[in-house]
Amino acid sequence: MQQQPQIAEYEYSENKQSLQERHEIIETLAAFATAHGGAVFVGISPEGKRVGIKLGAGTIESLVNDIKQNTQPPLFPSLEIEGAEDNAILTISIEESPLKPVWAYGRPFKRVGRTNQRLSPEETQRLTEQTRGRSWDGLPCPSLDINDVDKSIFDSFLNRAGQPSSDNFHDVLQNLGLFPSSSVTTEDLIDGDLAISNAAILLFTKNPQVCFPEAQVKCARFDGFSSTKFLDQQTINGNVISQIEHALAFVARNTRQSIVITGQATREEVPEYPVTAVREAIANAICHRDYTCSGTVQIRIYDDRLEIWNPGELPPGLTIDDLYREHPSRPRNPRLAAALYRARVIEQWGTGTLRIVEACEMQGMPRPEFSSETGTFKVRFQGVAERLFLNLTGLSENQRRAVAHIQEHGHISTQEYAHLVRVGERTARRHLSEMVTQEILLFHEAGPKSHYTLHPSHLVTSLSK
Fold first, then answer.
1. CATH code at 423?
2. Does the reported pTM lie above 0.70?
3. Which candidate, 255, 210, 209, places its Cα nearest to that of 235?
4. 292 with 254, same domain?
5. Which terminal CB of the chain, N or C, has fewer other CB atoms within 10 Å?
6. CA distances from 139 to 50, 201, 213 (A)
7. By percentage, how much of the chain surpasses pLDDT 70?
């Protein structure tokens, strides 16, 4: 075994009193192999006293076989026996593994100080990518295989990609790079060459959530400007392309059409948020999210904005400012991204955020806001109501709600405003009168049907459902 650095001994050694602690011994060897290597001394008490063990016929062979069968990649330690067979000290030494992390009994471990630490999904993915050159979406799925590919979903994908229907799942998946990469060992595979990658599970099975419960899109339409009261909500499961389409449908039914006065006999109606930008943002969130993180893609619609959240930080080397200019493509899930590109769902050259910005500018909207914080990447679109508010400074929260109500319904009465913001009619009348004075609203006196509308200077962005 290679000489270890001069660090505290317990980082590289552990004492076990007997081979009855075989499960713990194997976990420790996996933890050592993930870190810097180490040795387990069997026949030594936790206090460091020699107690010895008895080695029977086949003991060593059985131990070596157990270590190999219960670790991944398989470990092949060196063993050294000191003393007589009825009072021996067994030293089990293991080198640092070039492939990390090393798993024991289906769980990844790493030695930290004097303890064996079970690794988080994020750390497991990071070590896998560093040492095996594989991203999460290229790993074999432990629960499903090629027999779980759904024919109708598969054919729909081929149709999008401009290819004829096929029953040959194997060759098509091979061409798409959706089998685990060639660096996968035989032990990685399930049922021989039938194992498929995580990306293939997300793309071609009816219910990828069997393997990845967090692979969902949660959508919500909130009442007002905060996340307190739901008007509509939906949790979207299924394959990733289906998720994109259903998420777009949710946005369409929970946003409005803007009426643009053109000066001609006809008027133009455009979506509150540009479809191209919203599609790109949703597709990017589903494609580039960190699937090792807990949490789901979220779509949040408020009276004044649309936000799309996905788990995961920006890739190393990219900043928020880079997203507003040409930048390299660094997909977190390259196999999934390549397949969605083939199906014409996303673009592949790092211009997705530029397309989002351009679509907003073409519709006369401010640039979307990109942000990355607390492990979440967010895209925020400014809604029609908020764009109007940019020119209506000094409004209270209650007055903003009045404007939003008028945009949706065309007018508001004193009684409707009082009910909306929960004030008395006298206070409501005073608030609305102040907005008339500010030339934000017009008052239409019609007895019991008196009401308020937006001032003509603001009608360009009035809304209809």
1. 1.10.10.10
2. no
3. 209
4. yes
5. C
6. 44, 11, 17
7. 87
